[in-house]
Structure formats: C-alpha cells, structure tokens
Amino acid sequence: MTENKKPKKFFHNLKLEKMVALSFTVLVISSTLIIVFVIFIPFSDEGFSELSLYVYREDLDTYVTFGYPAGLYTDRNASIFFVVKNFENKVAYYQLQIKLTKLSQNLSTMFPLSSSISYQMYSNNTYEKILSYATKAEKESPSQFNDHYIWEPTNTTLYVNGNVLLFLGGDRSIKIVFELWKFDTEEDKFVYTGVFTFLELFITVV
After folding, report:
1. Which end of the chain is flanked by fewer CB atoms within 10 Å, N or C?
2. 108-165 per-position pLDDT tens digit
3. Same domain for 167 and 189?
C-alpha cells in the first residue's frame, strides 16, 4: 500500500512544479510585453489643439512665421495674426486671451497668467470661435489656413498705452502671451488648455 502511493505523490509533485514553472514563465513574458508596450508604443491621445502666430507679408501675399515685431512704440500699434487648429477629435469652442506681462515672468502649461501678474489686453469674449474637428486624412495632410477645423488668420492689434506703462512700472522688456482656452461643458465655463505662445518685445516711449 505504501509503495503504491509514493509514485502517485511523486507525479503529483512533478505536475505541481511544472504548473508553477509554467505560470512563472507566462508571468515573465506578460510583464515583458507590458513593459515593451508602455515604453515603445505610445498610448493614443485624445487629440490636441494648435496655436500659431503669423505675420502678413504683402510682398509675398501670404502669412509667414518670421519677421515678428521686435518692439512696440507708444505712438503706433503693431499687428500680429493668430491661427488655431482643432485636432481634438470633437467640436471645440475656443477662446483666445491676450495678456501682457514682464519679460522675467515665467509661463506655465498648468496655470494661466493671473490678473496680478499680467495686463489683459482685450476682454475675454473678444476672440471666440467654434471649430469642427479635423478628420484623420486632414490630420495627416493639414491645410495651412483655410478649412472647417481652422480658425483662419485673425488680426490682433498690439499696443501700448498709459495703463500698460503703469502696470509695468519702469520695465520696458515684455512678453505678450497668447493663451488658448476651451469651453468645458461640465464646468460650464472656459478653461485654460495649457496651450500658449508669446512674443518678446521692447517698449520704446516716444
């Protein structure tokens, strides 16, 4: 009786060891695949919004991303054009806020410039637009300026007045920051997208 039970116990232990080894192997392979996937295969995002600044060149009859104004004068204005593209995979209601701040001021993708450290150049509702989203084909070959998902080149006037000078104190080196906001239906208000661009300028008092 005892001798008959030993082989069964031996084979039972052998099967158990094989199962443990197999499970361990599967676990190692699975972990390796997960690590490779996380490191080398990026997760698909939910899309993004694009904000760009342009200057209109009359001699070329087009908009270019060079030749931006280097300074502002108190007796004259300057023009800059912004363009927004919706690659969010859904319709978006955008708002562009334009703020002036000191050159030394840091900018963040997490938080917009507050009123305590910036001068709001236009009221919030000055620049607002609803854009449909780009299709997959349009994402792969995006149009430059004119399409249903593009906020076409929009002229905005850069200026300096007494309120700006008062805000700056004695500083003359500034940043003009273009912040992109988007309407959040859950919060029922515009929220900062973290998308921004800016110009560095020097003010000349005439």
Report:
1. N
2. 999 999 999 999 999 999 999 999 999 999 999 999 999 999 999 999 999 999 999 9
3. yes
